[in-house]
Amino acid sequence: MASGSHDAPVGDALNAAIDAFGAAGIETPRLDAEVLLSEIAGLDRAALIADPGAGLRPAQSRAFSEAVRRRLRREPVAYILGRKGFRRIELEVDPRALIPRPETEHLVELAVEREPGTLLEIGVGSGAVSLAVAEELPGCRITATDTSPGALELAAANAARLGLADRVELVEGTLPPGNFATGIEAVSLPGAGFDLILANLPYVADGVALEPEITEWEPRSAVFSGPTGYEAFESVIGEIAGAPFEVAAIGLEIGQGQDERVARLVREAGFTRIGVRRDLAGIGRVVVGLKQGAAGSPD
Length: 299
Hints:
- The protein has helices at 10-23, 29-41, 45-50, 58-72, 77-81, 105-114, 128-136, 149-161, 180-185, 212-215, 231-241, 259-268, and strands at 8-9, 55-56, 83-86, 89-92, 118-122, 141-146, 168-172, 193-194, 196-199, 204-205, 224-226, 246-247, 249-253, 273-278, 284-290.
- It is an alpha/beta fold.
């Protein structure tokens, strides 16, 4: 794009945004500025750097200025763009649900490894886990619950847009507080239960200081669990233990340092083989529990 008399150079706009983000204490000022400008200018990030003299049309300059203002208010980039990539799918995202994060992909990896015929996800949010599993395991029948009507609406919209609406049954569920088993009784259970349950429950203790991108924009009920950070685990695992259906395996995303206590809760719920899946940094990310007779390894 040749620069014209009314066009602002992308390099100037980019550098100004980087400086503003840095001064505001944003952790990744260059990355955020490049991602936003690339989207608005219709150029890939390499082109922004290779041709800083390329011009931004007045409408693009205004749109970028508004995006910069939103980011300076600490609105997450994904909410500004309205979408987020997750494994092989792209999801629409907004403040009705958490932004999908890379560590949550460990839940999908567990499902792909185990190849369940039936799957229950507790806390579907934007639909990231269930829809990624549906896309990668076409033979899996999936039920997904959430207590947030807004999150369920967002997940339904993503399912429809991705052509997966017939593969994932969305149910207004009963995550804590509430009665999980009662919520599940309203679902047409496939067979006698589920081969696998997956959940990314709220696991942050009340009062823990987090980035304003989380505390001011993402749904608090999906982040904070209670005074200890274990309340959601205790409630949901307890309900699973007393649920009127069989569960062969479970995978729970956890916060750093929570593996021992959550593993104990899973064992007390009747899962006899317990493992912790760790990321490349050695941080425990998913507690896995298998019932007696379930195939495979929890590790």
